[in-house]
Design brief:
- By secondary structure, this protein is α+β, with helices and mostly antiparallel strands.
- Helix content is 41%, strand content 12%.
- The chain is built from eight helices and nine strands.
- The strands form four sheets. The chain has a three-stranded antiparallel β-sheet, with no helix packed on it. Strands 2-5 form a two-stranded antiparallel ribbon. Strands 3-4 form a two-stranded antiparallel sheet.
- The longest helix has 26 residues.
Length: 223
């Protein structure tokens, strides 16, 4: 069979994303239809840079304080965010806090599993103190008197947790020890590229009858 006839019978596969790499279908280059992981983590023994974790907690603190400024209900929502932030299965959070998502960090169990709501509560309950302080602002006299010891407790908790993140070989703070968790660094993998089968012009049989060429085939890339 000649090259021209072979090309007419079998349409050539081309990439529609202008990628010049070859579609070999090897294990290292996921093709369309194959399951792909959205994240890849480094070695479990690798300790996350404490500066990245500090940036993540600052982002979360800004969000929590902004929410807490909403009269009355803001403090409750802020406390709930602190406690549940690593277990909420929301598209923009992905079972981790907004700060961790932006810095590409993820808290996981020691077996590498994502946290659920209960795991997040066990890991973060001590940070709910900050949200309680924002509630006390709206309680006359008694709330104002309690704000000072509650604020001191929140600061003490923050210092202890930060110390643990820095000195612990795996960066595990007190909340991680209580919930049996750790924080790892993750990175989004390259999504699978779409392959398009482009049909050649109609071919003619030996009797001169036109043979209909196969239509263009597109397969959806898994989300």
């Amino acid at each position: 069979m000649t090259d021209a006839a072979s090309e007419q019978q079998y349409p050539r596969l081309e990439r529609d994303d202008d990628d010049q790499s070859t579609a070999t279908g090897t294990a290292g280059d996921p093709l369309e239809g194959e399951p792909t992981r959205d994240e890849a983590s480094p070695s479990p023994a690798a300790k996350v840079d404490p500066q990245k974790r500090l940036v993540a907690i600052v982002i979360d603190a800004v969000i929590a304080v902004a929410i807490g400024m909403i009269p009355w209900v803001g403090g409750l929502v802020s406390a709930a965010y602190w406690v549940l932030r690593d277990g909420l299965d929301l598209p923009f959070m992905d079972q981790r806090s907004v700060g961790k998502k932006l810095t590409k960090l993820r808290p996981v169990t020691m077996d590498g599993e994502r946290l659920d709501m209960m795991g997040s509560v066990q890991r973060n309950w001590m940070f709910g103190v900050g949200g309680v302080m924002q509630i006390l602002v709206y309680v006359p006299i008694l709330g104002w008197l309690l704000m000072i010891p509650v604020a001191a407790l929140a600061i003490l908790i923050g210092i202890v947790e930060l110390y643990r993140v820095i000195v612990d070989p795996e960066g595990r703070r007190v909340g991680d020890l209580l919930a049996d968790t750790k924080v790892i660094e993750v990175a989004e993998c390259r999504p699978a590229r779409r392959l398009v089968a482009r049909a050649p012009p109609p071919a003619y049989s030996g009797s001169g009858v036109a043979v209909a060429a196969p239509t263009e085939i597109r397969r959806a890339v898994p989300a």
